[in-house]
UniProtKB/TrEMBL annotation:
Domain Calcineurin-like phosphoesterase: 54-281
Signal sequence coordinates: 1-20
Annotated organism of origin: Athelia psychrophila
Record-linked InterPro entries: 5'-Nucleotdase_CS (IPR006146), 5_nucleotidase/apyrase (IPR006179), Calcineurin-like_PHP (IPR004843), Metallo-depent_PP-like (IPR029052)
Gene Ontology CC annotations of this record: cytosol
Protein name: Metallo-dependent phosphatase
UniProt keyword annotation of tRNA processing present: no
Lineage: Eukaryota, Fungi, Dikarya, Basidiomycota, Agaricomycotina
Gly residues compositional bias, start-end: 316-326
SUPFAM superfamilies in the record: Metallo-dependent phosphatases
Amino acid sequence: MPGPRALLPLLLLPIVQVWACGDDHDHTHALQRRAYPTAPLTPPTRALEWGDLNIIHTTDSHGWLLGHQKPSFPEPNYSGDFGDFSSFVTHMKALAAEKGVDLLLVDSGDLHDGTGVTDGYPAGGVDAHDANEFVLKLPYDIMAIGNHELYIYNNTLDMHTNFVPQIPGRYLTSNVNITVNGASRPVGSLFRKFTTARGRKVTALGVLFDFTGNDANTTVQPVASMVAEPWFLAAIAEAPDVFVLAGHMPVSEDNWPAVFDAVRKVHPYTPIVILGGHTHIRDCNQLDGRSMSLESGRYMETVGWLSMDFDKSAKKGGGSGSGKSNGTGPLNFSRRYLDPNRVTFESSANDRPMLLHQFVERLLHLGGIELASNGKTWSTPARDNALSKGETGTT
């Protein structure tokens, strides 16, 4: 099989007939989808609630691009791989366009360290370098750095040198720098300002908790110091339609209030969405009636969904375009935690089969297998070593 880098150009091809295996036999395999898990999966009990602004959220994926493959529950609930997720995102983007609303894709960090897909790099390689090439194939609007991007300087430098230039302005490291010989520069961008497909103005930040275990040549500025920086005050000076604060910080009991309060001091009523991570849990917190905070689990066991409606007086042209209002009352938010599997994805996408990007999905799947040592079985435990299991569902 070609190496993962050789797979990437194929993502641009419109049609392919067969997939050739790099072994000693002259044969081909038809490009076929993986089978569903043998265990029956239950679709969500209710449809997603769409708003004027909708967000698909991932965090703490830690290399779980191939999904969870064990047959014992609850693993099948999380059996969707990154190819399935890519198809899901494409369908949801199309649905958003049909509905005339906005949909953003956001990640809150920790792409590194966790599976053979990221950690099984060859001698002389860099952790997650090749795996991140597949992450880049998804249309993320905002990405934030995590602490696992900072334990090894070469990993941080690789993100700065090779990852960030491929998504200019979208990888946000508001308080994380590379610092060499006294000179500091952000790993990514300090903030991002952009306009959505429906004309909404967004100001986004990417914040890491007060992490102290980072490698030499990297620095993490305390959050309380960051919000006093001149660049930060300038970035938040103009009122957008919504602030999107992504970051690798728990949405409960951490430093988000410092960032939130700094924004609220300037803009008491502008909507704020916070998308956190790090503690590997599903969590939700509301700091006031015009904001919502969401944390979406770990290991691609959870895909978060958050939607919000703007003030009616802020809508124009049938709900599109930037039209700031003087609204002060509570806004309407909804949130869901989706189990990443094809049944959930298809149901959430209005029962559209995940076929639109079958080729992309297949390449993501096969490339991930190759990165994980060609799918070889190195050992098999005598039993399932899960400490606790329960049948969980989309909530």
